[in-house]
Known about the structure:
Layout: E1 21-22, E2 27-28, H1 32-57, H2 69-77, H3 89-123, H4 131-148
Antiparallel strand pairs: 1-2
Amino acid sequence: MRGGGIDMSTQPSPGYEGPVPHGACGAYALPMKQTEIILRAIGVLTETNALTRRIAQDQDAELDPAESQLGSLVTEVFPTVEVPADAGPTEAGQAVADAYLPAAISLVGAFAFLFSELADVHDAGRTDVTTASLLQDLALRLSRATDES
């Protein structure tokens, strides 16, 4: 462990092409925008974890989707697409696909990265590490890496 945090210095699974730890501080080599998306995805997972616990305690608990971090993240990640009025169906579809593909890849990549980190801890049998503490540790390290760049 470094600095009291969770040591996740192991390399990701073969074939994983997402961000990987590097350097002595465990920072991640990510473009700024992708780091922000991962930090927001951590917020979504943290919120979902808390909601799951709340529903387990009170089955009548309600969720307002308009207030969820997931809805906010999706709204912020996916761009507004302007399709020319004279565009045909193929051109309109291509314009939307071209605009949404990078955002979809970034969003899926963020959740895949976080899943991989959570799975690594689970597979290592680390019962002393909770989901919440792992997500908090990742958020702190990614925030530090962003501040240093």
